[in-house]
Amino acid sequence: MSILIPFLRDDPTPLLEPLSQQRPDKASQLELILLDDGTNDPILSARLVSLIQSIPIAGSLITLTENSGRASGRNLLARKARGEYLLFLDADMRPDGESFVADWLALIDNAAPEIAFGGFSVDLAPRDPAYEVHRAMAAKSDCLPAVRRSQQPEKYVFTSNLLVRSDIFTTAHFDERFTGWGWEDVEWAMRVSSDHAIQHHDIPATHLGLDTVPQLMAKYRQSASNFAKVAARHPTLVATYPSYKIARIIRAASLEKPIQAVSHRTAACERLPAGLRALALRFYRASLYAEALRV
Question: What percent of the chain stands above pLDDT 70?
Fold first, then answer.
């Protein structure tokens, strides 16, 4: 199994440390490939090379001087991998349990999945009040058990903790026309789900890199055009998503700008409860998507 970790200005050390603590019989079944996608930090690079050399897993660091993007970077990692299976992990993840890698290897041995998503949590994430809105949103919408995710298997596929058989990814990789943040992994899952089974399992890792409200807003602005691409390519699937349904209503009533203004102020108001601010963020995102659907 090839463990593939791209990063940009993140320090993946907290993820590498638990991954490196494997028994020799497990370590021999693994390789670790990191991609520095344009950080340009020689001190960090030197520290990561030293860390890779000190762990029992065969590993390497690929360094790019310019950012290639989320889809392109992961495609590059897959091309460099030698494993029968690819495990994509985001650099700001941390395994929730000590048996994380062993559980993935056992799943491969026992079930030979084509594609599997292990899920994620916020259990180990920082409790700083600045991140409480993102924590509330993730806990409600993303940190779901496998039985819930399996009801819409393609919707809950993220590169944060994704296992793919390498021959499948060779013929169906991420679309590099997706730029900025978001939706390239879900679109990929929609595309391959007609030919390959997507399984969901409870092998979670924590998303340590929670965002502040301004950071989330910036990501949602980046993701709007990607959402419109997905909606155009997979209209039947996207039509079932609540974000699409709300965006359609907003677009029909031409309320994009008023809702953006109100939801932006509400989400940014630190005196309001986290749940209300999270709801405002969802409407802010939907109004951005409504604008993108008009183009």
Answer: 99
